[in-house]
Design a protein that fits this description.
Length: about 270
């Protein structure tokens, strides 16, 4: 992974806080394409930080990317527990730090700043992919993605209490809540009803109670990625950027869920581009 928001020093401190370096011989496969975590067999998905050497990312036999020292890889599958989208094979003798799900959560408790950095990288990916799909005319109307609900809305409201003074807001059916291109000042949690997330004419996600939207604009303080419309009458919990940052620092579970939500959106758009 490489992007302007990415700081190798932050990644190194994060991985070292919960994991240890290990050697990987040239030609060794760290994980295989379409491989999925198998908790019962004690084979969880892991994310990696490359300390030395070079790792090839392969789709079939074709190299689709290369990992350099200081970069992380395998994070999307580890966060979402989804099948691997590519194989990772050591191109040379390497040294890596690997984190499983438990180690990742332990590290988040110690280094919450990493979560914000990783969110920034994912948001940049989302913006780049949306721009490319829009330019290619691939954001046409289509069947919606499945309904998303990242949080228990009551629990999240309790967490947010004291971090955000905004009262709940209510929207009638078919009313636009936020529009793509607007400056984002708040993220929202659906507490009642349903909302739809649209990119162009395409509905990309339905959000029921516990679903969140608007977080991407808070992460990089840029324009909204998508338009959100109330599909039914709905109630929303607004959370300001300061409240959002406080939640990330205070609750590793919140940070992990936010990363999972962003990672699922990255995977969804990546599939559209293949």
């Amino acid at each position: 992974m490489s992007a302007s928001a990415y700081d190798p020093r932050v990644a190194l401190a994060f991985f070292r806080s919960a994991g240890k370096g290990e050697r990987v011989a040239a030609g060794e496969t760290l994980f295989a394409e379409k491989e999925k975590a198998r908790p019962l067999l004690r084979r969880p998905s892991k994310m990696y930080l490359l300390l030395q050497g070079e790792v090839s990312l392969l789709s079939g036999r074709k190299e689709v990317g290369a990992v350099k020292p200081g970069e992380i890889f395998g994070e999307l599958a580890a966060i979402t527990d989804a099948p691997r989208s590519a194989s990772a094979v050591a191109k040379t003798d390497c040294k890596v730090i690997a984190l499983d799900a438990k180690q990742f959560r332990d590290a988040l408790k110690k280094k919450p700043g990493f979560a914000l950095m990783l969110m920034s990288v994912m948001v940049k990916r989302l913006r780049d992919m949306i721009a490319r799909l829009a330019a290619e005319g691939e954001l046409s109307a289509d069947k919606a993605a499945k309904e998303g609900a990242a949080f228990n809305p009551k629990h999240l409201a309790e967490l947010a209490k004291g971090l955000s003074d905004d009262p709940p807001v209510y929207y009638d059916r078919n009313r636009t809540i936020v529009e793509a291109g607007q400056k984002g000042l708040r993220m929202y949690v659906v507490t009642e009803g349903r909302a739809v997330v649209k990119m162009g004419e395409r509905i990309v996600e339905r959000l029921g109670p516990g679903g969140v939207f608007g977080e991407a604009a808070l992460v990089d303080q840029s324009a909204r990625l998508a338009t959100v419309v109330a599909e039914t009458d709905c109630a929303l919990l607004p959370i300001t950027r300061n409240g959002f940052l406080g939640l990330v620092k205070m609750s590793p579970g919140f940070a992990e869920s936010m990363l999972g939500s962003l990672a699922e959106r990255v995977r969804f758009l990546t599939a559209r581009m293949q």
